């Protein structure tokens, strides 16, 4: 007759579980970690019965309006990046305008940035073609600055179309501009006309020798209503000698503070109404 097994007592079961718990507690972490993964892989299918998956718990209520095709997604993504690129370009222009504007008199005019799309610096002709025109409130006679942070006048607008304009540099042989010469010796301004020499400088003719003009005297572009609020430095007298054709006059040579050669971007001083239009 088979021997009947005695059932385990509660004390035995409890003692066995306590010993097993202590053993697990004392085992190294790498062993207990493996046991944990083993337990999860064995019993997870049974424990997950009837339990919603994470995608069902966190999924927002769907709407047909929130779903777009892959093609539409790509179009939106391209449009977004194009807008971001445009924003960066506008931000860069704003910073450039702010720097130029800070150097102008407080009562001065507004300014417009333009890119140089062509240049003709050869012989007596020295001109630039820019990508702004009538639609940008550009008009003939407006002063043009070199956009390098110095904000020096390099020429004036000589011809315009709807979307482009031609800038005649102060060194062009056909460029004629009203100037003021500050005579350091006389401590006064002298009005004159300055004409480009077709090279890298300009001449001031018809100044009588009774006026004390010296090398180093500063030359200013004169203020003109609607074009320039206050006189601005345009060059410096580099040479003064007797005019060989007219002994009673000076032969005055001026070197510009800034040459327009190599300019890639310029700033045009425009009337105040331009600023009001763009504030609306």
Q: What is the strand and helix layout of this fold?
A:
Layout: H1 10-26, H2 29-47, H3 54-58, H4 70-103, E1 110-122, E2 125-130, E3 143-146, E4 153-160, E5 165-169, E6 176-183, E7 188-196, E8 202-208, E9 218-221, E10 232-242, E11 249-256, E12 265-270, H5 272-279
Antiparallel strand pairs: 1-2, 1-12, 2-5, 3-4, 3-12, 4-5, 6-7, 6-9, 7-8, 8-11, 9-10, 10-11
Molecular structure report:
- The protein is of the alpha+beta class.
- It has a domain at 96-279: Rod shape-determining protein MreC, domain 1 (Thrombin, subunit H, Beta Barrel).
- Helix content is 30%, strand content 32%.
- It has 5 helices and 12 strands.
- The strands form 2 sheets. It has a 6-stranded antiparallel barrel with strand order 1-2-5-4-3-12.
- A hairpin with a 6-residue loop joins β10 (232-242) and β11 (249-256).
- The longest helix is centred in the first third of the chain and has 34 residues, at 70-103.
- The radius of gyration is 41 Å and the shape is elongated.
- The model is unreliable at 274-280 (pLDDT under 50).
Fourth-tier CATH superfamily name of the domain at 96-279: Rod shape-determining protein MreC, domain 1
Number of helices: 5
According to CATH, what is the class of the domain at 96-279?
Mainly Beta
Structural class: alpha+beta
Care to count the β-strands?
A: 12
The major β-sheet equals: 6 strands, antiparallel, barrel
What ranges have pLDDT less than 50 throughout 5 or more consecutive residues? 274-280
CATH architecture of the domain at 96-279: Beta Barrel
What do the pLDDT scores average to? 78
**What is the spatial order of strands in the main beta sheet?**
1-2-5-4-3-12
């Amino acid at each position: 007759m088979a021997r009947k097994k005695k059932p385990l007592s509660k004390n035995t079961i409890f003692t066995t579980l306590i010993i097993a718990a202590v053993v697990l507690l004392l085992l190294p972490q790498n062993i207990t970690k493996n046991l944990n993964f083993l337990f999860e892989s064995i019993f997870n299918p049974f424990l997950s019965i009837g339990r919603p998956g994470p995608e069902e718990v966190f999924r927002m209520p769907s709407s047909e309006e929130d779903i777009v095709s892959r093609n539409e997604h790509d179009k939106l993504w391209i449009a977004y990046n194009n807008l971001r690129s445009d924003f960066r370009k506008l931000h860069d222009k704003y910073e450039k305008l702010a720097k130029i504007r800070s150097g102008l008199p407080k009562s001065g005019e507004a300014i417009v940035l333009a890119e140089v799309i062509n240049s003709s610096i050869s012989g007596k002709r020295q001109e630039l073609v820019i990508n702004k025109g009538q639609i940008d409130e550009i008009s003939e006679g407006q002063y043009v600055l070199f956009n390098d942070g110095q904000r020096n006048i390099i020429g004036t607008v000589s011809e315009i179309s709807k979307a482009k304009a031609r800038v005649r540099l102060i060194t062009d042989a056909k460029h004629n501009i009203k100037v003021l010469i500050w005579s350091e010796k006389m401590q006064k301004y002298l009005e004159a006309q300055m004409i480009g020499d077709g090279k890298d400088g300009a001449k001031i003719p018809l100044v009588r020798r009774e006026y004390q003009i010296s090398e180093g005297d500063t030359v200013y572009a004169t203020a003109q209503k609607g074009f320039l609020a206050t006189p601005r430095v345009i060059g410096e007298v580099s040479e003064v000698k007797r005019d060989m054709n007219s002994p009673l006059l000076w032969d005055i040579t001026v070197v510009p503070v800034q040459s327009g050669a190599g300019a890639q971007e310029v700033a045009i001083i425009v009337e105040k109404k331009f600023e009001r239009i763009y504030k609306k």
